[in-house]
Amino acid sequence: MEARGLDVTPGMIEKIRHLGDVDGVEILERILEDEQQHVLFGSEWFYQQCEQQQLAPEVTFKALILKYFKNHKPKGPFNIEMRLNAGFTANELAWLEDQ
Q1: Is the bond preceding residue 77 a cis peptide, omega within 30 degrees?
Q2: Do residues 6 and 82 make contact, with C-beta atoms less than 8 angstroms apart?
Q3: Tens digit of pLDDT for each residue in 32-71?
Q4: Could you tell me which residues come within 8 angstroms of residue 88 by beta carbon, excluding any fewer than 6 positions away?
Q5: pLDDT tens-digit profile of 28-37?
Q6: Cβ–Cβ contacts within 10 Å for residue 27, how many?
Q7: Residues 9, 66: Cα–Cα separation, whole Å
Q8: Distance separating alpha carbons of residues 2 and 98, to the nearest angstrom
């Protein structure tokens, strides 16, 4: 769920920009940049843990999502570009988007 900020913050930035709040836009852009880096660190840690525990990352990703979302997937829309830059795979994102 940490990556949800990657999905919603760009829209928030546009709304704040439309209101003319330059400082608010700068703050949200900084938060978005930090969020992408934070999610990337989490992705790297996840893949490292999967390797150490000899788990298939994509299978494990799907199993954990279904476990913690009670057999559902989070609803989009998803910011594909930012999530890819933050370490998600194209297969993971395609699976998430396939409702």
Answers
A1: yes
A2: yes
A3: 999 999 999 999 999 999 999 999 999 999 999 999 999 8
A4: 3, 43
A5: 999 999 999 9
A6: 13
A7: 25
A8: 20
| Count of C-beta atoms within a 10 Å radius of residue 25 | 18
Copy the structure tokens of residue 84: 């890819």
Q: Which residue has the tokens 């910011």?
A: 79
Q: What is the DSSP string of the chain?
A: -TTHHHHHHHHHHHHHHHTT-HHHHHHHHHHHHHHHHHHHHHHHHHHHHHHHTT--HHHHHHHHHHHHTTS--------HHHHHHTT--HHHHHHHH--
Tracing tokens 């209101």 back to the chain, one arrives at 19
Under 8 Å between Cβ of 77 and 7: yes
The pLDDT confidence band at residue 1, using thresholds 50, 70 and 90, is low
